[in-house]
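Morning!

This is the sequence you dropped in the shared folder:
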Amino acid sequence: MNWPKKILVYLDSGSDIPQVALDEAIRIAKTHGASLRIVEVDEPPVFYPWSDAAEIETTRRNLQWEKESYIEAAVEKAVSAGCDASGALLEGKPYIALIREAQAQAYDLLIKTMMRESETVQRLFGTTAKHLLRKCPCPVLLVKPGAEQLQRIVVALGPVESEEQAAFNTRLLQTAGQMAQVQGATLSIVHAWELYGENILSKRMSNDEVDARVQEGQIRIEEELVELVNSALPEAASIDLAIEYGAPQEILSAFVTARKADLLVMGTVARSGLQGLLIGNTAESVTDQVTCSVLALKPDGFISPVAN
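The structure's back. C-alpha cells below.
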C-alpha cells in the first residue's frame, strides 16, 4: 500500500463508541498530506403496513439534520487541524454506500472505528465492518477505541504457493514495514500453517513419518519466508519472524496477544479477479478475536461484488 492521498472516513454518529476513526484519519492525513472525505450514511427507513409514514419521515429528517451537523463539526475539526477536508451525507445501506463511494472516487483508504457488541464482549466487530473487510476494494483500517500511537505492529503472512501470493505477502510486509518506520514501532511477522490432510495421513503413516513431514514443511516454509522478508525489507536491522505450526486462527490470535500488538496488518485470501470472494475463515476468525486495530488489504485485481 502506497501512502494514502485520498482517505474516506466513516463517522457512524449513531454509535456511542468514541470516534477515534476521525482522530486517526487526521493524524494520517497530516503525516502524508492526504485529503479527507468525512461521511455519514442516511439509511432509508423500513415501512410496514401499520407504519405512520409522516411520523417516520419527520424522524428521518431529524436524523439527517443530526448527521449533517455531525459531519460539519468533524470537517471543521479536521480543517482546524490543517487538513484538506470535506464532508457528505451518503444514502443507502451503510456498507454498500461506503463501498460505492470508495470505488467511484478511487479512495486509497477507508477508516472506521472498530465497533463492539457490548462492553463485556469487546472482540466482536460490527456488521458494517465485516462487510467492508470482505467487499471493499481499498484497504480498510478499523481503529480500536482508546488506540494511541502505534508501538507494536504485527503482520500476518499467507502461504507462498505462487508468484501472485508472494507478491501479496511482499506488499503486506512493505506496508507494515513503512508504518513501523514512520511510527518508530516494532514489527513482528507471523505465519501459521498446518499439514494438509494431517488427520488422514496420521491413519496411514506412523507418528514419526508425520512428524518428519511437518519438520520438512517447516524448514521449507522458513527458507521461503526468510528469503521473502529479506527481499521485502532489505534495510531492516533485525527481523522478528515466527513460523508456527497449528490452526492459523488460534496461532495468529495468540501471537497478537503475546506481542501486545497495537495494529494487525493482514490480507485476504481472495485470489485476484475473483469477484466478491470473502476474506476467508482464518481472517474472519482472527478479526473476531483480536482486540487491537486492524488494517486489511485486498490483493491486486480484487473485484468487489458491490456494483459501482
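Headline: The CA atoms of residues 41 and 94 lie 6 Å apart.

More detail when I'm at my desk.
O.
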